Amino acid sequence: MNGYLVFALVFWLAAWAFNEWLVRRRFADPTLRRLANIAVPLIFGVTLLVIWECVVHGFAIPSILLPAPSMIWARLTSSVPTLWADFQQTFMKSVLTGYVAGCGLGFVVAILVDRSPFLQKGLLPIGNFVSALPMVGVAPIMVMWFGFDWQSKVAVVVIMTFFPMLVNTVQGLSAASHMERDLMRTYAASWWQTLTKLRLPAAWPFIFNALKINSTLALIGAIVAEFFGTPIVGMGFRISTEVGRSNVDMVWAEIAVAAVAGSVFYGVVALAERAVTFWHPSVRGGQA
């Protein structure tokens, strides 16, 4: 066993022991408790990177099969302009635009479905059908309809995010109990007042669940759609092109950017959820 593998083993055992100590420790200071909660996944992630680096060097794995994290980092730092242009094309244009349009449209249609039993029985089964369509089949059609630029990627993202928002919002609007609705009727509340004061607040956990799911689906959909036609920029375009050129380190650099962007996007939605649904038992329990 060479030095790289020995170091990986020792580092893993030390990090594991330290994380176990942090998890079992009960800090009285809230600040220290938050820092410990952040440190545990951070140490775990750093440990994975160290083991990855050592395994690649220890077993002499060719870079075309699995580049080391140091190699990927070197490519990241030397290709910032290209990565930034790809990020703008894919995330800033396709993902955000499609995410807002798909989630917003799903929310509005859910309100209409809630008012119409006909739409509820007719549209929701279609939603389940469309959500099961393979994206590799839908993406080329959207490219044919809307062209090779970011508009076709927005259409794919809208399709992927519309029905999760629709289904979750419809389910959330029915979360309020009959007793609570009867109480609103005794106060002579209108449908709109019942919606805004009772049913919509009760539906927020379901809505944010859809928003969090869609934050990852939107990025995946945009990247996959770019495999089927795009200008010479974009994360999906770069991945497919660099794979053909055997520039695997650039592929992993794009994957790293996409992973960070998706994680940050998900985190922003989760923070918004905590701010809006501060009254929910799951949030109050997490703050205790």
From TrEMBL:
Name one process (GO BP) from the record.
transmembrane transport
Assigned keywords, A-Z: Cell membrane, Membrane, Transmembrane, Transmembrane helix, Transport
Superkingdom of the source species: Bacteria
All copies of the ABC transmembrane type-1 domain together span 104-276
Give the Pfam families listed for this entry.
Answer: BPD_transp_1 (PF00528)
Among the entry's GO cellular component annotations, what is one? plasma membrane
InterPro entries in the record, alphabetically? MetI-like, MetI-like_sf
The record's subcellular locations are: Cell membrane
| Gene3D superfamilies with a match to the protein in the record | MetI-like
Supply the PANTHER family for this chain. Answer: ABC TRANSPORTER PERMEASE PROTEIN MJ0413-RELATED, ALKANE SULFONATE ABC TRANSPORTER-RELATED, MEMBRANE SUBUNIT
Put simply, this protein is called ABC transporter permease
Source organism (scientific name) = Rhizobium terricola
Q: What is the lineage of its organism?
A: Bacteria, Pseudomonadati, Pseudomonadota, Alphaproteobacteria, Hyphomicrobiales
